[in-house]
Amino acid sequence: MADENTQADALRWFLTGASSDGGAQTDPLAALGKYRSSTEVAGLDYVVGSSPVPNLVVNYVGHHNGPGAATITATGADAVAWTSPQSAQGTPVTIANGETKVLYADGAPGEYVRVTRNSAVALAGLTTLTLLHRFNAAVGQRDWNLNEVPGGGLVRAVCLCAKNVSTGEVRDVKVWLAAIGTVVEVESAYGTGAVSIGVQSGTLHDWDDAGFVKNTVTGEVMMYTTRGVDTLEVPAAGRDVYDETGGGAGVGVAGSPSDELVPISGHRIGKEAPSSQPTGSFADNTADDGKQLPGAVSFKTPTAADDADVLEVGDLAAGEIAGIWLAKFVSPDQEPVESHYRYGIAYEFEAA
Amino acid sequence: MIDSAIIESLRGAEVLAIGLCVDRKELSSPGYSRVLVHRHNGAWSPETAVFSPAFDEAWDGVNGVVVEGNGAPPIHVPMLARAIQPPSGTPGKAATGAGLALLVAYRVTPGAVLHVRVSEFLERIKTDGDLID
Q1: The CATH number fitting domain A184-264, selected from 1.10.10, 1.20.120, 2.40.30, 2.60.120
Q2: What's the complex ipTM?
Q3: Residue A17 and residue A323: Cα distance in Å, rounded?
Q4: Which residue, A110, B2, B28, B121, has fewest beta-carbon neighbours within 10 Å?
């Protein structure tokens, strides 16, 4: 299937903050609940090279393509194919004048681009694109000011809306926090309170200088102040920052060799069903610019689809929606510039 | 075979549920199938179609079908619910016997029995995605 609104394109993400379902609201910082906005959560930024395929417009580039070089190749007068930065050219898709189609990279159902053809003139040539992560967008939000959150803490809780735009059912929707760097293992046991956690040398190269990490074995989320070549420094105040384990905030739970450490953004996430399907509303978190957690939502920090805390949205019938809340926390040791870091949520689902 | 006149008759009619029954051998090689149309009150219920739980696994990964016939445009029919064994002796079971059922919502002519060709199974694809910025 290459029609729009099918497979990977069956589930689309929108901002909230509108006054009615599908209403105008384009500001990611104002996605503070209430109704789904008509504004889709932006995909990857892209720069189109010179001499692209004429009359073929790129509408959306899915995040899962990842940053890098990609191409759209006209494989025939009425057919185009997508090559993502990570995967080879996918099956060519026939597209007629006026149609919008979704192109996939080879064997990669999450790496797609949505395009529209706006002329009957035969397609020809090659479109090169440079894909880039976007900053200050829906997940990472804006740069913060530590005067707002002295000592770190909650910056804002926003709500994104996942909508099944297909004509069939989307199944088993799950959402969790994406790993924003290489997943590593603990090398030697560490205790409670302030600790220095040793890992294999060189494996932290793509981790933020200061940030958040979850030990998936103990379930503890920690806030580290610095990272070296092979160590993470975690102060007592950075232990069990969300008070989710038996150890408690400031204490945490001892870790063991081979425990898995996942670098995550300072987010906790929660789900909310709308007041009614398919056009109902979510909690209104506009008070104090979203600097509180909506009371009806339970926030967690799952880091994998099989994490016991994963947000199980379940099945969405055609047109149905679900709210995913993102509560952004920051460390006092992080620089207040959002573009220095990556923020991410991951999801999976099944669709025809 | 379904013809365009019948397809047209499907449009705008009362909302019913269809039990699309496919023999097991036809599941692996889509072929001619029977669409049984049951009068319904607008929402699906077990009486509207028949199937066997033993075949349920066979539907894993299937999320709908495309039906076509007699040169008419293909109809994309998404699956709305998985098969559930109806109580013994229900009208649906008596009418159709054991078989696979794909439960769909569609506008059909009440009481009609249509013969269509299943031209494509719509495979459910598992997709990983992320939002990173």
Answers
A1: 2.40.30
A2: 0.87
A3: 12
A4: B28
